């Protein structure tokens, strides 16, 4: 991972083989980032993405092992039990003539080529707390 401080945050370049969520969460922890937003583009593989089924109150995930373009990745950073937690969604495009896309909540992925992340930290901490009606830890504003 390479990092450059920029005017309103950080440009982060993840390299082939790095775990996306683990690496970004570790970065936030080391830098003391307690709230923020991020956007990214690049390519990943072994992407585990999924959706939350409200009726069953659980996530369902599917893994895409092949290399996929990250057409879009966006998310936010908040504290859960005092530690940075990244909530991110992705749109992944097939790297073939079909360019077929899938998109969902990102659990984890491995960088296939590179992942270029723009992270903007906030001056105030954000937190997530469990919401009994939804069954998830939601932003507390």
Plain-language structure description:
The N and C termini lie far apart (32 Å). The protein has one helix at 20-31, and strands at 2-6, 9-15, 36-53, 58-64, 68-80, 83-94, 101-121, 127-131, 136-140. It has 1 helix and 9 strands. A hairpin with a 4-residue loop joins strand 3 and strand 4 (58-64). It is mainly beta and 141 residues long. The chain is 9% helix and 66% strand. It has a single domain (2-140), classed as 60s Ribosomal Protein L30, Chain: A, CATH 3.30.1330.80. It is flat. The strands form 2 sheets. Strands 1, 2, 3, 4, 5, 6 and 7 form a 7-stranded antiparallel sheet that branches.
Helix content: under 10%
Write out the CATH superfamily name. Answer: Hypothetical protein, similar to alpha- acetolactate decarboxylase, domain 2
* Main sheet attributes: strand count, strand direction, barrel closure: 7 strands, antiparallel
Q: State the helix count.
A: 1
Sum this structure up briefly:
This protein has 141 residues and is mainly beta. It is 9% helix and 66% strand.
């Amino acid at each position: 991972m390479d990092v450059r401080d920029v005017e309103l945050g950080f440009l982060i370049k993840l390299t082939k083989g790095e775990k996306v969520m683990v690496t970004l969460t570790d970065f936030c922890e080391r830098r003391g980032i307690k709230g923020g937003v991020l956007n990214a583009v690049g390519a990943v593989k072994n992407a585990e993405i999924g959706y939350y089924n409200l009726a069953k109150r659980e996530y369902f995930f599917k893994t895409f092992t092949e290399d996929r373009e990250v057409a879009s990745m966006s998310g936010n950073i908040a504290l859960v039990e005092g530690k940075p937690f990244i909530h991110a969604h992705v749109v992944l495009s097939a790297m073939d003539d079909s360019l077929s896309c899938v998109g969902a909540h990102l659990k984890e992925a491995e960088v296939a080529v590179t992942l270029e992340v723009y992270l903007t930290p906030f001056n105030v901490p954000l937190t997530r707390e469990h919401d009994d009606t939804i069954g998830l830890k939601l932003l507390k504003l």
